[in-house]
Design goal:
This protein is mainly beta and 104 residues long. The protein has one helix and four strands; from the N terminus they run βαβββ. The protein is globular, with a radius of gyration of 19 Å. The termini are far apart.
């Protein structure tokens, strides 16, 4: 979760979700504009929140002003019983091996 300074429909945000296998809890629930804070319900949803499929979404809200130029997002999530811990993605290429010294 964080201030991505990017909207949910951008190429980079969509790629982040796809590569990480993340879900956006706002999907189907509204835009939840978070920037600028002083525009109320009008603005851009620049702050993103992503969850892994092992979580069940319970609620999403915008709490009171936090003194920032962005509005805060708060979610209630539940870990799904039996959910496997997420694993780090497998690298697409092997790390570079240190060079071995050549015999003179």
């Amino acid at each position: 979760m964080g201030d991505f300074n990017d909207v949910a429909w951008s190429r980079t945000t969509r790629l982040f979700k796809q590569v990480g296998g993340f879900l956006d809890p706002r999907t189907g629930r509204g835009a939840y504009p978070s920037f600028p804070a002083d525009f109320g319900v009008v603005g851009w949803p620049l702050d993103q929140m992503f969850v892994s499929p092992g979580f069940t979404f319970r609620s999403l809200r915008i709490p009171e002003d936090a003194g920032s130029d962005h509005r805060p997002l708060a979610a209630e999530l539940c870990l799904t019983p039996g959910a496997r811990r997420s694993r780090m993605p497998t690298p697409t290429s092997s790390p570079r091996q240190p060079a071995t010294p050549r015999a003179p």
